[in-house]
Structures are given as C-alpha cells and as structure tokens.
Amino acid sequence: MSEELTAPADVAAAPAAAEVTDSGLASIVLQEGSGDEKPSSRDTVEVHYSGWQSSDGMLFDSSVQRDEKISFPLNQVIPGWTEGLQLMAVGEKRRFWIPAELAYGETASQPGAPSGALVFDVELFSIKKAPELPEAPGDLTAPDDAEVTDSGLASKCLEKGNGEATPGPTDIVKTHFSGWTSKGEFLESTRLHDGPAQFKLDQVSIKGWVEGLQLMTQGEKRRLWIPAALAFGENAPEGAPQGDLVFDFELLEIQSAPKKPEPLPAPDDVAAAPDDAEITSSGLASKILKKGSGRTHPKATEEVLVHYTGWTIDGEMFDSSVVRGEPISFPLNGVIPGWTEGVQLMVEGEKRRFWIPGKLAYGDTPTQPGAPSGMLVFEVELIKIG
Questions:
Q1: Which of 37, 90, 225, 322 lies at a CB distance of 3.0 to 4.6 Å from 154, suitable for a disulfide?
Q2: E strands, 214-314, where?
Q3: Which 8-state DSSP code applies to residue 375?
C-alpha cells in the first residue's frame, strides 16, 4: 500500500548535526543498518527512496509511494547517490542533502528531472557485488617482440587460434575484449557482462580495432597497443578515453558479411513522366501498371501496407522493400507529401508508378541525412489498407 509522504521538516537545509563530505554532500542516519559491508561504486544496490526539491519541499519521485524497490549500479546514477550510498550498510536508512552540482544541476538539462538542491530519504536493502575488474597487463607499452604495422598499430599473439581464415573489413565478428588506457586505467570488458560483443567491422569507430581484428584467426587471443591516432583521435566523443589504449581480444567467431542485393533496374521512363501519365494540380505524375481488385481508396489518416522501389531520375535505385523482401506499413500522413497524395489514388492490389517533384519529396537540397534529392520515381504496390 502506498504511503502519503510529506517533506521532512529540515528539507530546506541540512541540520548542524549532519555529516558533510568534502564534495558538499550532507547526510544523517535515520535508521542504523544491520551489517558492516558497504557498496562500492560499481556494485548494484536495491533501495527504497523518496526525493524532494529543497527549495519548496515538492515531492518529485518516490519508490515508496509506488511500493516498488529499485535496483541499479551505483556508477550509473547522479554523483550524490554514487557517493552517498557508499556510506551506507544494508538495513540503514539515511537522509541526504545533495547540492545541485551533485544532482541534475541548477537548471536540469535532462527532461523531467528536478533542478537545484535535492533531499532524498534512502533505505538500503541489499548489495550485489560487481565482478572483479580484469587486471591490467604488465606490458602497457608494446614490447620489442610485438608486431607493428605501417599505421603504428602494435600487437602480439597471446594464444593461437584454431583456424586459418581472418575476417574481412566488412565481416561480422563475435569477440570478448578488455581495455585499458596506457596508464592502466580500466575502460571496459565484455567479461563483466552477459556475453561477448558482436559487431560489423566497418561500423566500428576505433580504427585500431578494425585493423587489429583482421590480423586474427578464430579462437586467437591477441593484445593490441593502439596509438591515439587509431583510437578515438582528436574528434573523440565526450567522455571517450584520450591517448594510447591497450586491448586484449579473443576472436570467437567470424561471419561473412551478407551480400548486398542487386538493385532493380530502373524503368525506361525514369527520367520524365510519359505523355499518358496522370498529373495532379500539385505536379504529381503517375501511371497505373497493374489494376487493383479493391474498390476503396485509403484516407490520409489510414495506415497502409505496401511494397515499393525508388529511383532517382538518373536511374539509381536508393531504396526498395521488394529487394529486402519486407513490405512496409505506415500511416499515410506520416510520409513525404508525394506518397500521402499518391497512395490515396490507389486501391488494394493496384501497382502504380509515381514521378514525384522534389517539393513533394525531400526537396532539391535535402536537410535529412542520406535522403535523395530532386525528382524521385517510385513504383508502389498497395497490398492492404488499415
């Protein structure tokens, strides 16, 4: 049963008896715990909590009211929680006064998050210890017997594989890996998670990974010393590690990249609508290729199921549900204007070719990344309405 919760009498400011850490986090113990063990920053904890804004005492969230305890890794929450929960033992209940800089900030950038200083009552029920971090290698710089490529990537085979084939630049690989900075600071490891990582090599941003994994055979274990230029580089995303990196890889599986399907040939009249095409007042031109069996036309607000193929007027195919073997369903008012207007001319079972001016498609200079520009030609088969 949910509880009615009122703000603590001391919600506006921590009392003089509160413990205050160097960061400015203040707290008082409301209920003593039953043990001595305290969580580390990587452990997962189970808690009940209620949170109020210090400025006005407004309750903004409470697992107690929902009657649902919450579990989370301590390093994935606001800094005030990460620091504060590490002070607690199982069974303990504590009140925290968290400064804005240890919460969501004076003006929260996260949608729906409270701003300013916050007050939380937290009760700790259990601690699940995090797996031990893989130990950093003793050779954080490449040894003399490491192989070095022209790019500067250094590597050393730690355990030979059981095959001869190496992955190609577009293949899919399944691997276990652990990584550190050149100073021995731990970065990440698949060993801490449920299973290995799987990814396509040409979709990886770390060039050293792409090059290094192509040196390996299935079952091989290899250490890579990746120079900064082959890691995240100068344009590293926020929070990405800087400088040289070290990774241990185990290549578990290589999968050949699926072959790219052959594009469908463009219609003979792809460059311009023929004289017998129907043209609407908006400039949309179309021609029936196969008559339908239905009698009703879809409305702009209805959902339709179609097969389609699209070409630019120079005959280049840019998209096709036919090639993928997967028809697509969408509401007609959620697509480009040429489709919204054109498919409403059709009945179920009908197949029609459309010549869609740029203004009814993505424009002559599209702002949408990857979208084709100018006049487009589509062949559309209306499979189902609704």
A1: 225
A2: 221-226, 245-255, 278-279, 285-290, 303-312
A3: -
Identify the active-site residue in 78, 172, 313, 328: 78
Last residue of a domain, one of 128, 155, 186: 128
The sign of the torsion formed by the CA atoms of 111, 69, 47, 82 equals negative
356 bridge partner residues: 376
- 308 included as an active-site residue: no
Same-domain status, 183 and 214: yes
Please return the burial class of 183, using the count of CB atoms within 10 Å of its CB with bins 0-12, 13-18 and 19+: exposed
For residue 362, indicate whether it is catalytic.
Answer: no
179 occurs within a structural domain: yes
pLDDT at 1: 39
pLDDT digits (tens, 9 = 90+) for 147-177: 999 999 999 999 999 988 999 998 999 999 9
Active-site residue identified among 56, 60, 318, 364: 60
User: Is there a domain that residue 269 lies in?
Assistant: no
Question: Can 232 be counted among the known catalytic residues?
Answer: no
Angle at 71 between CA 68 and CA 76, to 5 degrees: 135
The verdict on 100 and 201 lying in the same domain is no
**Domains in the chain: how many in total?**
3
Residue 83 DSSP symbol: H
Chain mean position to CA 108: 22
Question: Which residue in 61, 171, 269, 319 is the catalytic one?
Answer: 61
Could you say which of 43, 96, 98, 104 is catalytic? 104
Distances (CA, A) of 314 to 217, 338, 354: 43, 19, 15
pTM of the model: 0.53
* CATH code of residue 176: 3.10.50.40
Q: Is 125 a catalytic residue?
A: no
**DSSP conformational letter for 85:** H
DSSP reduced 3-state for 99: coil
| Nearest alpha-carbon partner for 64 in 6, 13, 117, 114 | 6
Q: Identify whether 4 is part of a domain.
A: no
